[in-house]
């Protein structure tokens, strides 16, 4: 979903890069890192947020569990709560189902699919608003879409 957001930002004419891409420039002051840690914390996301902050970039952390990890919240300028099931919720419900006095879990999408779907919808809504604010038409966005597919 983060890659999909980067693609849409590029369609808007904004400089956007995905962490790990060989063409991504170093993070610096004036940059914004949009990071996602559905369960609240991952060691890789924690480290990336720390590097970005150390380089002077601002950090926006998306998570389904805003109380689920101290380190990324300390590294983030803004924590956005996206309430949706993550892989961690899936694991907890499996553990609860193993306890006889607990009722069985509700049927849901597997692992983090619901969180990822919620991110996609959120990102598309953000892109629509950015297009309006930036005065970008669908035709202008299409003109920036690759022709190599």
TrEMBL record:
**Annotated source species:** Arundo donax
- Report the domain of life of the source organism: Eukaryota
InterPro entries noted in UniProt: PHI/rmpB, SIS_dom, SIS_dom_sf
Q: What is this protein called?
A: SIS domain-containing protein
* Leader sequence residues: 1-20
Task: Look up the record and give one Gene Ontology term from the biological process aspect.
Answer: carbohydrate derivative metabolic process
What PROSITE patterns does this protein's entry cite?
A: SIS
Entry's family note: Belongs to the SIS family. PHI subfamily.
Q: Where is the SIS domain?
A: 1-136
Q: What is the lineage of its organism?
A: Eukaryota, Viridiplantae, Streptophyta, Embryophyta, Tracheophyta
- Provide this UniProt record's keywords sorted from A to Z: Signal
- Residues of the region (Disordered) are 86-109
Q: Name one GO molecular function term.
A: carbohydrate derivative binding
Enumerate composition-biased segments (Acidic residues): 88-98
